[in-house]
Design a protein that fits this description.
CATH superfamily of the largest domain in chain A: MetI-like
CATH architecture of one domain in chain B: Orthogonal Bundle
Distance between the termini of chain B: 21 Å
CATH architecture of the largest domain in chain A: Orthogonal Bundle
CATH topology of one domain in chain B: MetI-like fold
Number of domains of chain A: 2
Largest interface: A-B, 85 and 90 residues
Number of strands of chain B: 2
CATH superfamily of one domain in chain B: MetI-like
Helix content of chain B: over 70%
Number of strands of chain A: 0
CATH class of the largest domain in chain A: Mainly Alpha
CATH class of one domain in chain B: Mainly Alpha
Number of helices of chain B: 13
CATH topology of the largest domain in chain A: MetI-like fold
Helix content of chain A: over 70%
Oligomer: heterodimer
């Protein structure tokens, strides 16, 4: 039994180490490329001849990176706030309120997740163009305040795990539904709400399609679009080292968030409607 | 309480749906009024030479790429679910590629896979000749799948979230019955995680059908310009073909393609929901 245990232990770790090597090597090469001198970055060399940290400074000279960061942070913050403020009440209505047609409307909401964005985006573009919102951050942030199906779904699943008795107790004490929601449900559902917030932040940070069609002026770009523009210019000159340096700076905040938030995320997402 | 969703639904979803459905029966270009042509776009679609190719490529990515991705993500999650020293680091390492943007991972894999690059040197180490990957239509899709598999962090995270919800008592009961590691995985983990697998598979299918960014980055790296999915159309996905119609200003035809995409999604979803009972362990509050 102990021998089997040891074998199992070794087996598990062998798989983990092998996977870890496969998953981290490309990223490691990315780091190495980001500090390579230009002439070397064009070759198949793996190890930088000298560590050219100046590549990172060079990125700031090429593009207004801090402006991109500011825009991205504005978008991310508004998307997170908008999503939470709008989706929490909707999710509450679908988990702890009883009303006629609830099931049908919920299926309707879920089915909008199946709609390809390709069906929607031309009309959406027209709407924003009509509103005079092109080349502003509004098309990227305002829709977040009108709730999205995926976040409603995740929040509802988490809300369902909350004990009905606690909510009923508050109701018996004379609390209205809004009060029950903000005083009882929200504090109890913090992990679920945090998970949705992180999810939306990561998504907004990396989203390329939306910013790419709505933004054009340099001072309005987000990081994801700015990175592609930088790459298009750099690729022509074979400067993959600059693309990689910019990409490393792009992912570092995300890595930091994941590092601190992975536990919240894993606890806050429930798909089965039961927390063990 | 529903009003935020309702307003958003009417303006940003229902109105575009009606619009795009109408356009799919018309000839429409940017800035010009639509002209009704009935089913002509749909008929034209079935005679389009590129359509069969794009559908085949997309099916390849869905039937081969997706199971590999889901399988490895589930394996990694199962190995990392219990709190143990070092697991946080492993989770981080497996997750990081998921946040690397497509342009960067594209440039990165171009470098890794190019002639004389690290991967072909690795092949050389074993005395084998490395394929040309993006230079060869037969190997471009496997290379694309490789990048997709590398970025499986999101899927792993969803599995992790599902795995921690499995009550420990089930494993303890299985241990009392003398179940080994494999038996526990097969008879406890797999059935208990099946609603999550269902969710991941369904959203993954929808994702593959709509995705174009990674294939786009690669094929543009090989031959910039038109969206033809170089090398030799091997990376032309359905979504890329559809995007090409939008770029060419053929909004009516592009809308018809988007609706076919929706119908395929609907068909896959319905098949999955109707066969759900056979392979998904039922829980109190199911998905969809």
């Amino acid at each position: 039994m102990t021998l089997r245990r040891v074998a199992g232990f070794i087996g598990q770790h062998a798989i983990l180490v092998a996977l870890a090597v496969m998953f981290s090597l490309p990223f490691f090469f990315m780091l190495l490329q980001s500090v390579m001198p230009l002439d070397q970055a064009k070759t198949t060399a793996l190890w930088p001849r000298t560590f050219e940290w100046g590549n990172y400074a060079e990125v700031f000279d090429r593009v207004p990176l801090l402006t991109y960061v500011r825009n991205t942070l504005i978008v991310c913050t508004l998307v997170v706030v908008g999503t939470i403020v709008s989706c929490v009440p909707v999710a509450y209505a679908f988990s702890h309120l009883r009303w006629r047609g609830r099931g049908v409307v919920f299926v309707l909401i879920l089915s909008t997740m199946m709609l390809p964005f390709q069906v929607l985006f031309v009309s959406q573009y027209q709407i924003f163009s009509w509103l005079g919102w092109l080349n502003t951050l509004l098309p990227l942030t305002v829709p977040a305040f009108f709730a999205n199906a995926f976040s409603i779904f995740l929040l509802r699943q988490f809300f369902l795990t909350l004990p009905t008795e606690t909510l009923d107790a508050a109701r018996v004490d004379g609390a209205g539904e809004w009060k029950v929601l903000w005083r009882v449900v929200v504090p109890l559902a913090k992990p679920g709400i945090m998970a949705v917030a992180i999810f939306q932040f990561l998504f907004a940070w990396s989203d390329f399609f939306g910013p790419n069609i709505y933004l054009s002026d340099e001072e309005n770009l987000t990081l994801a679009v700015g990175l592609v523009r930088l790459n298009t210019a750099a690729a022509r000159l074979g400067e993959s080292n600059l693309t990689m340096a910019a990409a490393v700076m792009f992912v570092i905040p995300l890595i930091a968030i994941f590092f601190f938030a992975q536990k919240i995320f894993i606890e806050g997402v429930t798909l089965t409607g039961s927390k063990g | 309480m529903l009003s935020p969703w309702l307003i958003g639904f009417l303006v940003f979803t229902l109105y575009p749906i009606v619009n795009s459905l109408y356009w799919s029966f018309t000839v429409k270009r940017y800035g010009a009024p639509a002209r009704w042509v009935g089913l002509a776009n749909y008929e034209l679609l079935f005679t389009n030479d590129d359509l069969a190719l794009a559908l085949r490529n997309t099916a390849y990515l869905a039937l081969i790429g997706l199971p590999i991705r889901i399988g490895i993500a589930m394996l990694a999650a199962a190995l990392l679910v219990r709190p143990r020293r070092g697991n946080g680091i492993y989770r981080l390492l497996f997750y990081v590629p998921a946040v690397v943007p497509a342009v960067a991972s594209g440039a990165l894999f171009f470098f890794l896979l190019k002639e004389g690059g690290p991967v072909s040197s690795l092949f050389g180490l074993f005395g084998a000749e490395a394929p040309l990957w993006f230079g060869d239509p037969a190997w471009a899709k496997p290379a694309l799948i490789m990048v997709g598999t590398w970025a499986l962090g999101d899927t792993m995270l969803i599995f992790l979230a599902g795995l921690v919800d499995i009550p420990r008592s089930l494993y303890e009961a299985a241990e009392l019955d003398g179940a080994g590691r494999w038996a526990k995985f097969r008879h406890v983990t797999l059935p208990m995680i099946s609603p999550v697998t269902f969710f991941v598979l369904l959203t993954g299918m929808i994702g593959v059908l709509q995705a174009f960014d990674q294939a786009f980055v690669f094929s543009q790296g090989i031959r910039p310009g038109r969206l033809t999915g170089e090398p030799q159309g091997s990376l032309l996905t359905y979504a890329m073909l559809q995007l090409r119609q939008f770029q060419d200003g053929r909004i009516g035809f592009a809308s018809a393609m988007a609706w076919i995409m929706f119908l395929i999604t609907l068909a896959i979803t319905l098949v999955m929901i109707f066969t759900r009972r056979r392979w998904v362990h039922t829980t109190n509050e199911g998905l969809a």
